[in-house]
Amino acid sequence: MTTPESPARIGNVLHPVPDVAAAVEFYGSVFGFATKFVDGGRYAALDAGGTTLALAAPEEDVTGGVPAASIKVADVAAALAALVEAGGTVVREAEQGPHEVRAVARDPWGNTVVVYGPRQDSPG
Which stretches are transmembrane (predicted)? Predict the structure, then answer.
């Protein structure tokens, strides 16, 4: 659940691609998107004019090849509970990713979304 102090926001739009370097070149040359961040051959973030286009290689693709809006929330578990209560479904339970906690869900109309938030690193 979100509050006025911590509203959810679209952090990126995820596009699964078989070759991150080729996709970075394509979106840069065709649309002029600047590279914000590259994590080897597994992931890249491009500046798409106020929105981040996230390019995920097969080993980093959590959606099974489906483009999806990635929605950043303060509490992934609470957001998933609210999503299910409102008629959505969880496709892939929350898990620790390399940089965040993330889950994959569908809204009541079948649209895939990635729900992600801060890592929950255990102390010690």
Answer: none
Give the DSSP letter string of 14-66: EEE-S-HHHHHHHHHHHH-PEEEEEETTTEEEEE-SSSEEEEE-TTT--SSS-
Phi-psi region of 80 (alpha: psi -120 to 50; beta: other; left: phi over 0): alpha
Return d(Cα 77, Cα 61) in angstroms, integer: 20
Please name every residue paired with 113 in a beta bridge, in sequence order, or none if there are none: 69, 105
Nearest to 64 by CA among 91, 93, 95: 91
What tokens appear for 58 in the block? 């097969």
The residue behind tokens 């004019």 is: 49
> What's 75's DSSP letter?
-
- Mean pLDDT in each 10-residue stretch from start to end of the chain (124 residues)? 70 96 96 96 95 96 95 95 97 91 96 92 50
State the pLDDT at residue 124: 43
The Cα 118–Cα 2 span in angstroms is 14
